[in-house]
What we know:
Blueprint: H1 3-25, H2 28-44, H3 54-74, H4 81-84, H5 96-106, H6 109-120, H7 125-132, H8 136-155, H9 157-160
Helix pairs in contact: 1-2, 1-3, 2-3, 3-7, 5-8, 6-8, 7-8
Amino acid sequence: MTTAQYNHCVDVYSDGVYRFILKNIGDEDKARDIVQDSFEKMWRKVGEINHEKARSYLFTTAYHTMIDAIRKDSKQEPLDDTSFNRHSHEEHYSGLKEILDQALEKLPSIQRSVILLRDYEGYSYQEIGDITNLNESQVKVYIYRARVFLKNYIRRMDVVI
C-alpha cells in the first residue's frame, strides 16, 4: 500500500471505525484513542498490507485493540458512581435511539460487536468471522441471539414508557 492509499483509507474508513468502536465501548475519548492506535498499527505495516484488504485489516485491528483496552480497563478499579450521581434523576423514555443504545449496552460484548458489524457497518458473515476470529455459524448464532434480545427489550412497555 502506498502513502496515498493509506491516506485514502484514513479519509474513507475513519468514521466507520470510530462509530463501530464507540457503539461497543460508549466512551468517545477511548474510541478516538483506539481508532488512532489502529491507524498507527496499520501505518507500521503499510508496506505489507494489500490496499484492497485495508478495510478488513483496519476493522480487525480496531476490534482487537478494543478488546485489549477492555481487558486493561477491567483490571483497574472503577470509580464509585454513587458520589457523582447523587443529584441526578432517572430518565425514562427519551426516544427510540436512546432505547436502542441502552439495549445495545446490555448485550454481551461479542454479541454487540457482531450486531454492529453486520447491521451498522454492513459486513458479511464471513468478514465478521475474520474480524472476530469466529466461524461463520458462530457469527450467525450471536447475531440471532442479539436480535432476539433487542426485539424483546424494545417490546417491553416499561422501557418505552
